[in-house]
Known about the structure:
CATH superfamily: Vaccinia Virus protein VP39
Strand content: 15-25%
Strand order of the largest sheet: 3-2-1-4-5-9-8
Bound molecules: S-adenosylmethionine
Amino acid sequence: MSNSQFPVIAEAFSRTAEKYDSFAQDHPHLTRLRNKVYAHVERVLPRGSHILELNAGTGTDAVALAQRGYSVHATDIAEGMLGRLPEKIEKFSLQNQITFQTCSFMDLSGISGGPYEAVFSDLGGLNCIPDLSPVIEQLPRVLKPGGLVTWVLMPPVCLWEMAEIFRGHFRLAFRRLSQTGTRSHLEGLYFDVHYFWPRQVLSWFGDDYSLVALEGLSVITPTAESKNFAKQFPGLYGALAWLDDRLSTRRPWRAWGDFYILSLRHQPGSR
Ligand SMILES: C[S@@+](CC[C@H](N)C(=O)[O-])C[C@H]1O[C@@H](n2cnc3c(N)ncnc32)[C@H](O)[C@@H]1O
């Protein structure tokens, strides 16, 4: 399996790795989003479970999940992103809980250390491909029967982005609705990003997987890109976050947002 985008993606993210970590510093909104993902994982996956993390980036989640009692094998296609992880492992003395490997989620045949109790992916790394089936088809190789999949994906409807029509930014407001993907720009390089409805993802998973949980992530609060809103308008942000927490598991809100968190259980032959 190959895709000419992958070397570009690997290079773009490798170039941005240091900025990626600095951007996350003093970013209370992103911290809130990540904490909601960890709370979700803790609800659906027993502590001590061994997790395979796809598109792990610089390892922020690997560290956070290890600190919550999980073991994590962190993988990513961008060496520059993953290259920031060893220092974090050392800093937090997590040598016994985190391993890592450079690899694409399009080729999980060489993954070491499996099979795993869960396959985790955060913040839309999987939105870099137009169809998730090639990844899903490989899951039985790396996931134990009865294992869990928790993926954080970007949907076509993000209300905060759509509100950009009021500022005249029509392309930004509706970019996620494009059927062919949206051109994304990072460090002078271009690649396509695709947005998936949960029902499309569920149909790719098929009958061997059952839905465990679905919740919108940042349904009415800003996108993860917005670093200043929460700091400039703490009262308004607090009110939006309060409401966001209450809406995120309800229809139709749970399928909207900057992201959604989808958890499924692998139960081959159960239906
Ligand atoms: C937005 S970052 C998210 C990183 C991390 N999950 C986080 O929460 O910070 C997207 C990541 O997906 C990775 N990625 C994109 N395509 C990939 C592929 N085919 N295989 C593995 N990783 C990939 C990129 O290298 C990048 O690190």
